[in-house]
Amino acid sequence: MENFVIITDSSCDMPKDFREKYSIDDCLMGLIYFPDGHSEYVDFDWEKYDPVEFYESMRDKKVNYKTAYAPMGDILATFEKHLKSGKDIICITLSSALSGTYQSCEMAKNELLQKYPERKIICVDSLRYSLACTQLVIMAAKKRAEGFTLEETVQYLENNKNRIHQMGSMDDLFFLCKTGRITNFKAFFGTLMGINAMADINRKGLSEVVCKVKGKKTALDAIINYMKNTIVNPQEQTIFIAQSNRQAAAELLRDMIIEEFSPKEVIIAPLGMSSGVSIGPGLCAAYYLGEEISADMALEKQIMADFLEKRGK
Hints:
Blueprint: E1 4-9, H1 16-21, E2 26-28, E3 31-33, E4 39-41, H2 51-56, E5 66-68, H3 72-84, E6 88-93, H4 101-115, E7 121-125, H5 130-145, H6 150-160, E8 164-170, H7 174-178, H8 184-192, E9 195-201, E10 207-214, H9 216-230, E11 238-243, H10 247-261, E12 265-270, H11 273-279, E13 283-289, H12 298-311
Parallel strand pairs: 1-2, 1-6, 6-7, 11-12
Antiparallel strand pairs: 3-4, 3-5, 8-9, 8-13, 9-10, 11-13
């Protein structure tokens, strides 16, 4: 078996039992800054904080949290621990379009390879976040178990990362407004009217709204329709669902996915702190492997346009 470890960061939201199952050796922990000014490492496995209470605290739009990526000292210490033990490293990070984690890991790599020139470190910009990044980490672990070399594993990830889809709805548009996706006016009236923004992750590593639909039932139907048109070999997949205070919707989506696609399993997990600070309450999204995302997302937007036309919306 190839002598390398797989490291990711706390924005991947990978559940603890999956980290253990796939021998994910370390996660670089980011920081969260609370409204009172104090900071902590993110509560990666929700052991200290309750996710429902965390997202409820954002509902009045006045409570603001901030995050920061893992300190450079932590990255250096984590990498060096494995280099000292004779292991090479693949580090899979949150999308560089959303964070400086990838750049920091590259800096740490360049510094440490001067000290350990016989070792290898390759940092992979996932161009994904949350459970989409988890899907990429699992891919890497499976290839390692199959005997792929470090370089072969990285090449496989690079060839396939734009096949990992996110499809779901965001029903609190105020938080899309905070990230510049929609104006305040549209956010206010969109939320009042029950508008759900439907998004996938584009090739630049950003969530891109492909359509907006009215009503939760239409949003769930749109997710299933989109998956029908993009998923590949669903019966062989573990499909993840991330939710931020939308557990009931996530359970309904899970049941619909099982009925439609019969995957190996469907796992629901709360959206982690690192991503949740920017997204806020209201997300319910599925993460799965499918056809490669088009360069300008024209195909993905057409899928949704066709769905809405058939629905008469």
